[in-house]
Write a structure and sequence with these properties.
- By secondary structure, this protein is an all-alpha fold.
- The protein is 76% helix and 2% strand.
- The protein has seven helices and two strands; from the N terminus they run H-H-H-H-H-E-E-H-H.
- A two-stranded antiparallel ribbon has the order 1-2.
- A hairpin with a 4-residue loop joins strand 1 and strand 2.
- It is elongated, with a radius of gyration of 20 Å.
- The model has no long low-confidence stretch (mean pLDDT 85).
Length: 181
């Protein structure tokens, strides 16, 4: 058996997917794979842009005008999209030491309550992110000449993915009957 820390997102998501209702498994596979591809592509593009900027500054003593702004946009998208994958992997900060001291039934209740509260927060952030899109439409990023809407769009998209992944984790928790030790 693979150690818990060595599981990849695909391994962990696949393990969780088996506990989902069958109609949910196909869309889940697509969402996880598309998210992995998006994070890889965004991270790769970010790395290329920053490398070009470093090369340009230190070799040619010149800066590429759009790189700093583009890197910021990409970094925001990278983190908000990647947060959902980290959630599925269990890579966010947790309270495992505290949970380990609880009896299984209490631990399950605490985990489900925490997941429910996180879900409420994600839903609130989706609403706030959608609300922020209106004012962002009228503003532009001077370095790129594009609307801030595209950066702000990462908030509702990222939190929608987080809410989706939390829904999966809640379904898995309910199906499993309690957290695994």
């Amino acid at each position: 058996m693979i150690a818990e820390a060595e599981l990849t997102v695909a391994d962990k998501a696949g393990e969780q997917r088996q506990l989902l209702p069958k109609p949910w498994r196909g869309p889940d596979r697509v969402i996880v794979k598309a998210t992995e591809i998006a994070v890889f592509a965004i991270g790769g593009l970010f790395t290329i842009l920053v490398s070009l900027e470093v090369l340009s500054r230190y070799v040619f003593q010149s800066s590429i005008m759009f790189v700093n702004a583009g890197a910021k946009f990409l970094l925001v998208w990278f983190f908000v999209i990647g947060a959902g994958l980290a959630l599925r992997l269990g890579a966010h900060v947790g309270f495992e030491l505290l949970l380990g001291l609880m009896r299984p039934i209490r631990r399950r209740r605490v985990v489900l309550a925490a997941q429910g509260l996180a879900m409420l927060f994600f839903i609130e952030m989706i609403g706030a992110g959608l609300y922020s899109l209106g004012p962002a439409w009228g503003q532009s990023e001077p370095g790129l000449g594009i609307r801030l809407f595209w950066a702000f769009l990462s908030i509702p998209v990222g939190f929608t993915l987080l809410a989706y992944h939390m829904a999966v984790l809640i379904a898995v928790e309910i199906k499993r009957g309690g957290p695994r030790r």
